[in-house]
Amino acid sequence: MTLLNVKNLTKTYRSGLITHKMILAVDNVSLDVKEGEIISLVGESGSGKTTTARIILRLLKPTSGSIVFMGKDIWHDLKSKNDLKWYWRNVNGVFQDPFSSFNPTHRIRDDLLRVFNLFEHNYDNETKMNLVREALQSVGLIPEEVLERRPFELSGGMRQRILIARIFLIKPKLVIADEPTSMIDATLRLSILNLFTRLREELKISIMFITHDLGLATYVSDRILVMYKGKIIEEGTPEEILNNPKHEYTQNLLNSVPKLYTSWFKQL
């Protein structure tokens, strides 16, 4: 069943104080995400993938096009504060810089407890803390080691795990993960991706993974969509993209992946 449908999405910007040249950041993009599916939007910097993600998250308004989530057009049907609360309860983002997602003056305990403001049900304090501890344990963290610390006292990998623990608490329908591994140590990237696959397997959460790394997209995705100059130029399963890339740009992306990795991915 289709969870999210994006149709003819376009975003333009004006550039320059004198010329007012129009820049087409997203050009007539259409895509869908099914329930329990992981798709990757792959492209270099400036390809339009992050702009697309920000529009889906309602952080940026499109120039034209429609986005329908669970039968509701997110730019026309969601008008009240409760409507928006419902949307952000069900569509969550995990971003490239995990530090920017935290209040630097608050302890991790306070940040995670604020999640419960999204819930209609009022949990007692003991239940809230038990759920927070369970979520931290789910992502491989020891609650007592992080709850009283502030974001700047933690590594990038730990901050990203805490953001994913927040997802385990909220249990949204869809997660938009925008370059979630690009600012953490390379040795930790697959462990973070494995947490996203657990979100899908254990909670049936759909995930849109935004990345410039075709190798990582191949590892985690059911489908891959390649973006170039604001357009989706190719779509396929990881096997189709790896074994028979159609577009020259996709071929170039594939050539940038170390041969050792491509051989490994083909065996997965």
From TrEMBL:
Source species, domain of life: Archaea
Keyword ATP-binding attributed: yes
One term of GO molecular function: ATP hydrolysis activity
Keyword Nucleotide-binding attached: yes
Domain ABC transporter: 4-254
Keyword line: ATP-binding, Nucleotide-binding, Transport
Signal sequence extent: none
A GO biological-process term: peptide transport
Pfam families cross-referenced by the UniProt entry: ABC_tran (PF00005), oligo_HPY (PF08352)
Protein name: ABC transporter ATP-binding protein
Lineage: Archaea, Thermoproteota, Thermoprotei, Desulfurococcales, Desulfurococcaceae
